[in-house]
Structure formats: C-alpha cells, structure tokens
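Quick one - first record:
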Amino acid sequence: MRILHAPADVAGNAYGLSRAERELGLASDVAIFAPSGRGYGFDVDLHAGIDVPVWRRMLRRAAFVRRAVGRYDVFHFNFGQTILGVRQLGLVLDELAWLKRRGKTILFTYQGSDVRPADHCPCKDPECRRVDRYRRPAAQRALRFADRVFYQNPDLRQWLPGARFMPYASVDARAVRPEPLPEGEELVVVHAPTDRDVKGTRHVIEAVGALRNEGVPLRLDLVEGVTRKATLERIARADLLVDQLLLGWYGSVAVEAMALGRPVMAYIREEEPADNPFGSRLPVARTTPATLAGDLRALAADRERRLELARAGRAFVEQEHDPRRIAREALDGLVRIPGA
C-alpha cells in the first residue's frame, strides 16, 4: 500500500505521520503545493502555490494527480483541501468522486480554520473570512466521500459529524532531547503565535507586562516568523510556554515544548467530556485571558510545580503523541500494516 499526504502540511503533522507510516513498513510520501518557509519536511514540491498563475498551477496539479492515481492507494488530504479543489461562485468542485471510482481510500485531517466558521474563530484575516462560505460545502464533500475523517482540535467535531479525534503527530519524542529547566532568577516566558489574533497574543503581552511592572522577574520571548528549528531552540532556552488562550485546546507548538521538558500553559475548554479527550491526564496548566497574570505569577514562584509539569509533559508526549501509534490507529481496518 502506498500513501500520499497532500496538499498542505500544517505544523509538520502530515510529515510526522508519513515518516511513522514508513517505520511501520508502508510506502508514504508528502506532496505540497509550496513550502511554508518554516522548515517542515516534504517529498514533492508541486510548485503550484498561490504565487503561481492560476492556469499554470492547475496544470501542474492536474499532471500530478494523473501520476498519483496510478502510484498511490491512499490519499490523505490535509487542511480541508484536495489537490484539484476549486471554490468559486459558492460551489466546491474536486477530485474526490473520481478517486473513489478508482477504488482509492480517502482520508481527511482537519486542523482549525479549514472548517471552523468565521463567527467561531478570532482570526481577522480578510482572506480567511472571504472563504468562509466554502468551509461547510467542502467539509460535506469530505464527509461524503472519505473513508475516515479526523480533527485535531476537539471543537471541530461540531462541524464534522462522525469524524474522529486525532492527536498531533508532528513531534517524535525520540528525536527531541529534553533539556533541564533553566536556573536563572529571571524566568523567560515563550509564546510562538502563527496568528496573534487566533492565539490571543495581546493577553500574553499584557499579562507579562503587568507582572514586570509589579517587579516579578519575567521576560517574554515572542517567537514569530522563524523556522521550526529556531523555534525549538528558543523554547529550549525558556522556562515555560504560554500557548493559545482563546480556542480551548493546545497547539502543536505545545507538544514541541512538552517534548523539550517545558511546562505549558493554555486555555483548555472542558465544558463537556469531549472537549478534552485526555481528561485529567493532560499535563497543561489551565489558564484564561482573565486569569493569566495570576496563574503566571503562581507558576513563576513554584519551581517544583514547573518541574512536575515538565516531567509529566515529556511522558505525555511519548505516550499520547507517538506518531507510530497515531498512524496505526488512523489506518486500522483500512490498510494492512506489515507485521501487525
């Protein structure tokens, strides 16, 4: 069985799954429209991103699909996109029915704004809002034609009935060495937003600023616009990570921080059991925009608590975010895994 992940790779999740599938004895590749600039791995660059004229990018995408249909058995689409998807005049057209007629197995993984409606998302990007009317019809097609649909943020389940939760597979803990917590008097708080509005960055800036005015020895390291490698290096030099504060779940950068042995703070929605699939086992210090300053003050003063979160976070990533385990569960019953 040959597996293709396409056409986007959000935070390295597709690549993490693909490498895990290779370890399991399967042939697996990642094809992308264009590199993100963050340093995530891939196997095929289609040179068909939005900076390429429409006619040329569609020709390149169509040529690749013609080759791919003869080469791959499983098509795993990411970020709510297909390779030939067209969204115009309120309509969504794609290659899903064509792939099903050729006996292909289809999977989808949703990661956030690919399906979350604009009125449920703090993103202020005009393009994000412009495509809002296409999210529901595109998701309906995925649910209709896919053999299995996954979501990585629990709130997405309300727009993807019948889909399954999938933990982030972007971090292989075996490849990340945990670092001892720093012992300096000034604590470094790292925050790494890909979108400040979505992550609630202003609340982090305000909380750290307020604590510094009180004389609490804190410093904010705001990580933006750098590669994944550089992000990991800066997290490793910090004392703790504050992740997102608005959406109710943690992001893949939190998994990276936990793998490095760094405590993580985030807002975790827990109004219903399905809001947090891990329950009390999730070693993330709960906080909210309103309580962040006080929660930061308390954690900054409690090194033992930070050490406890660091140990628990590393163990959690090894267990719950093991890419090989996630790949097995995603393919179970659909693909025969050698040696299984």
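second record:
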Amino acid sequence: MLFIPAMIVITLIAFIINVEAPGDPAERLVNASIGNSETYKVNRQQIINQKRKESGLDLPVFYFSINTLSSSNTESPAWYKYVPDIHFYGTHNQYHRWLSAIVLHGDFGTSYDTRMPVINEIITHLPWTLILSLLSTLLAFGISIPIGMYAAQKRGKMFDRISATGLFILFSLPNFFVASMLLVFFANPRFFGWFPESGVQDAVLFDQTWPFWVKLVHWAPYLVLPLITYTYSSIAFLSRQMRAGAIEIFDQDYITTARAKGLGETTILWKHVFRNSLAPIITTFAHVFPIAVTGSIIIESLFSIPGMGREIYQAVLNYDYPVIVAIFTIIGFLTLTGYLVSDILYAMADPRISYSKK
C-alpha cells in the first residue's frame, strides 16, 4: 500500500521539475516544430498562445491554490494578508491532465530536441540498455555467488585471500578507466584489435532482414567490451556481500548439527547455507530494475552505444525537460518495483519472514 503514495510523491516531484524548468514550454514546443517558418516569425505570440491552450498550459497548475485575501483585493484592509484564500479547481488543472496522459496513454509529451514523442525516444533507446543490463546482471550474479560461497567455505585459506585481493583491486578501478584500457588494448590494431571500438553494429554490413541468430552473432563482438565494463565491479561487490552473509550462516548452531549428522560440505554449502545467506544479495537485486532502464552514461558514451544512458546525457545537455522528467518518473517507478520484488523474495528465501498479520 505504501507503493501508491510513494509513486504519487514521485510524480509530484517530476511535475514540479517540469513546471519550474527555465523557459516557456509552449515556446519550446513551437520552436521544436515550426520555429523557422515565416508564419511563426510574423505571428509568433499568437501561435505560442494557441500552443499553450492546446497543451493545457493555460490551466491552473494544481487541484487547488492557497493565497491570501489581499492578493485578490488590492484595496483590502491590512489584516487580509493574514487570511488564507483557498481556490479549488477540481480535475481541470495541469497536473491532472499531465498525470492522466501518462497513466492512460503513456504520453510523456514531445521532446524539445528531436520533436518526437518522448515515449518513442525511450522505446528506441531502451533495447540496447536492457540487453547490456540484463546480461550483466546474469553474469554478475552467476559468477559472484559461487565465488562468495566458496570464499566463505574456505575462510582464511588461500582461495579466500587471493579472491579478496583480486576483487578489491577490481572494485577500486573506476569504470571509465577500465573501459579506456579495454579500448586501448583490445580494440586497437596496434595491440590486439580483437573487438570493434564503438557502436553496436556495422552500418555497411548489417542487414535488417537477417534472421535473429545471425544478427546476434553480428552484435556479439560489439557487446563484449561494454559487457565486461558493466560487470566487473558488480562481481567484486556481490561476491563480498555473498561471502559476508554465508560466513554468518556458517557460524550458526544448525550448521554444526548438520556436520555432526555426517552431511557433506557441498550439501551443507548449497542446501543449508546458500538459501539462508541470500538476504544481502536480494537487497542488491532491488537496484537491478532502475539500472536496467537508465544504463550507464559513461559506458554508453565511451562505447557509442545508443542506449538510455547516452539518451539521458543528451537530454541534459540539450535541456530536453520532457525526456528528463519521463526518465525520472520511470526510474522512480522501477525503484519502488525493485523494493517490492525484494520484499517478496525475502519471504520466499526465508520462511521466518511473513508480511501477513496473525
């Protein structure tokens, strides 16, 4: 139930950003569509006013406004400025119209920069970010969980010390540095030159009529270096989280009892320790949803990937507020969804956790 009021607050913040953004939205919309026409130059203000009316920008901002009696009566007594004057507008306001367009139609408005519907901009750039984020998540969890579990099992031994040192070194390296080094050594003909240096496909060779598996083979070399850059720091962080959670479980009495019963270490590790040490990993999993949409601005810019990270960067540079507000709203929604899914996974992983009242 907390999801709903939290989402309302997020939409309010997004709407305030949209309303308080510098410049006149109606003028920006007109400039984006017909800003260079002769008709606009002659009848500029009339066209802007018409666009403001069509877009509902002439309506009251919110469901109500609070002012003082003195603001509506210039010849009022002095004490009028201490008396609140509340005006209610019902659903005939900008916020209600803006929210209805998003909820009912997924309409976030028109981009100031590209003159295209914002939702189309998002759909165009989203697939590449989703592909990289989801593949990175699968790799990160698939590699880090076994490393963390075995490091906990071999606590203080050679594998634990070596993995800890290597992972801390990886985690300390910033992603822009790693991305640059990968490009220098593995996309540079002077060294190895195994992978393409930028983009996601060859503009000359790529054919949209290819079968999907042929496209996948063509895309694969372009995604290797970005995928490594996306994944390496997550492996370091998640494996240490998994190790810490598993060590705590290894110290529990029921693990000692399992050993006393003669159970093998592998059975104890994966049947008893693994499930009960998932809490830190589940907490981290909550952040997968927003990251899967927003991507990484630095990585996508360095590798020239046409994803959401690069789109956010361009929107900020061009003051494209409809795109910024849309992404802000979507990130908020996905963050709440991530926390909701995490709560459900907590109850699935640990039977002691229950959200029902007894």
